Amino acid sequence: MHLASLIETGLLRGWMLFFVIIILKRSRMSETNPKQSFLSERLTEEYERQQALFSAQPAILQRFLEAQGKQMAEAIVEGALQVRFSLPDRVVLSLGNLEHPAIVTIPQNQRTRVVGGLFSRIRKVELYKEIRHSLNELEQSPDRAISVAGGLLRHAAVMHMVYNMLPAGRSVSYKLADEEETIPSIPDPAGEGLEPESAITASTDAIVEEAKAEEGRGELLVPFVPYARKFYLPQWVAFDENGELLVKSVEEAEAHIKSMQRFMEVLFLAVALAPYISADKEYAKKRYGMLGQLVNQGRALAYYQTRQIIARIQERASSGNLNRGLSLSLLYFDDQELRVDVSNFEVIPAGRIMFVPAFVVRAVHQEQVKVSQDTRYNPSTRKHLLYLLDLLEKAFEAANL
Length: 401
What we know:
By secondary structure, this protein is mainly alpha-helical.
């Protein structure tokens, strides 16, 4: 009897301990970021509801909505002055009984909408905000058919932005450069092999190799270098892991950066129009892949330009062409604004002052103090800019020109 009571007590304590561990784990998970988890669930529910509603429409209505959504999306991205779109003549309102769906017509005089115009341009109101406001009004309409039609048009527009206006890329994995970073931008060796290499290379997966061309033959196309294939869109990778150019010119590299910024801008506009699109898997894949690539290549461009500045200063100083003043415009990548920016500072005032390397070191020290105290930079951008300034300092700290 005593042994049985001990066993029961031990089992009871074991089960109690088991349940306590589960409760603690769940409480910790909920305490990490309950608001973000709740928001994510709401966005996912809204996305799934809109996707299901769109799928319930007849095929001919889906094609009509896609055409109108394409028109709206392209007008938004291209920054058009105004856009004209139409509601469908009918919509499916109920998903409860797919065998007998409730189809309701929309009156002809309520289908056409015109958004934007010269007055909006004068007021400097962006078209996507005007369209968003118009769609909000439609979805708040007391007429259920018009309300549903507005939501369907919004869904068609953002789906066109994400799926049709942006190129698809590779499956990639990035890691943080260090603990202070918030955006993974370094290709992760542990994630290599997510997408197997193809035995057949498409024309879009090739670059022109620098070599002597044989007479009577065109340029030789070879697969992208291994480093470029670690990114979402290898064709827009302009710098390797050492900051060396992979393309023919800096101008071409800058064009690639602009293409990546344009890519991210389209995703931003899609979320601004319909926040729930962030729950879409293709959106998440494209945002993750391109965001890491843009930050990586943007910083590489800044690093390359900094080395070019150092080389030019050294060249001009050796020829005595820096004795009338010197001001520097140092490029850096702002990963908060996702753009290349410039830090301007004076090294030597204008006038007949002989160049001394110590002037650069002193000016860099002053700029480092300003950057360290400037609250406009987030921690990762500040660290990136300080690193570039440190390159300048070290280049001239022990220079003997």
